[in-house]
TrEMBL record:
NCBIfam families: FPPsyn (NF045485). GO terms for biological process: terpenoid biosynthetic process. Gene3D superfamilies: Farnesyl Diphosphate Synthase. This is Probable farnesyl diphosphate synthase. It comes from Bradyrhizobium ivorense.
Length: 306
């Protein structure tokens, strides 16, 4: 293990630990001002799907992109927790019978299996909503305009032109609404998976009130990393095993999804990942050694086994 890889692993684990503790506090049964009560079943369901698992890659990207500009870690962790709430909500809804109909997530029953469909829908709704409660908090940044820019960026990454829009394009490609619709895999990836990962990268630039050049560098890096993540995911669906993945392998093929692997082949997809790593590395050159942990993150994404 190289020094850079060792430092990356240490920082990833620390961010995961810190994010877990922060989410546990944010998703406690203690009410905030203007809240009336936090129903026990709803909070339990939200915690079930948000705590005790996951690499916390998205909060890590927020923390490390912000660290490039010397942003206080506590502020970046809070923004990262908001992003993670969006991610966890998306997993809950993706797993529902009307969507991907998955029974297993992170090696245990999906939320609708552990509870029921109605509770899963509402837990997802509540996680989506609390994300915007968190991202607007004064503790993230003293400048309200910075918080506004963060909130807008998160909304756009999550919504019509981002993750939610990508999800419906994915379903249309499966033929859920009639005949299968042609799928532009690169565009689909940019929306469904890549938009939240890209937000994790540009969030640091927003928090750090970066120059336009620095913002563009992290934007380019985030786009390359997001596509590499999706291709690695597509490869794992073909080559991985369920025990390592914590969910059934081969799900994409079973649903007839168009993926990078179906379009490029396994060898072509692996070459595309190598090209994307080179793009990510080039984008970070503006930061010199300050970008080393983010470089390691791109390699981690490309080489992950689950």
């Amino acid at each position: 293990m190289t020094t850079g890889t060792a430092e990356f692993s240490k920082r990833l684990d620390q961010t995961a630990e810190d994010t877990e503790a922060l989410l546990a506090r944010l998703l406690s049964d203690a009410t905030e001002s203007d809240e009336i009560v936090r129903p026990k079943r709803l909070i339990e369901a939200m915690r079930y799907s948000s705590l005790g698992g996951g690499k916390r890659l998205r909060p890590f990207l927020v923390v490390e992109s912000a660290a490039v500009f010397g942003v206080p870690r506590e502020a970046a962790l809070l923004a990262g927790a908001a992003l993670e709430c969006i991610h966890c909500y998306s997993l809950i809804h993706d797993d529902l019978p009307a969507m991907d109909n998955s029974d297993l997530r992170r090696g245990r029953p999906t939320l609708h299996k552990a509870y029921d469909d109605a509770t899963a829908i509402l837990a997802g709704d509540a996680l989506l909503t609390i994300a915007f409660d968190i991202i607007t908090r004064d503790a993230i940044h003293k400048d309200a305009n910075v918080r506004l820019l963060l909130t807008r960026a998160l909304a756009r990454a999550s919504g019509i032109g981002g993750m939610a829009g990508g999800q419906i394009l994915d379903l249309a490609g499966e033929g859920r609404f009639g005949d299968r619709e042609p799928v532009d895999v690169a565009r689909l990836q940019q929306m469904k998976t890549g938009a939240l990962l890209r937000f994790g990268c540009i969030a640091g630039a927003i928090l750090g009130q970066s120059s336009q050049n620095e913002y563009q560098a992290l934007d380019d890096y985030g786009k390359a990393l997001g596509e590499a993540f999706q291709i690695a995911d597509d490869l794992l669906d073909v080559e991985g095993d369920a025990a390592a993945l914590g969910k059934p392998a081969g799900a994409d093929a079973a649903l007839g999804k168009t993926t990078f692997v179906t379009q490029l082949g396994i060898d072509g997809a692996k070459q595309r990942v190598r090209d994307l790593l080179a793009r990510a590395d080039a984008a970070l050159s503006v930061f010199g050694t300050r970008g080393d942990v983010l470089r390691a993150a791109a390699r981690f994404v490309a080489e992950r086994k689950n």
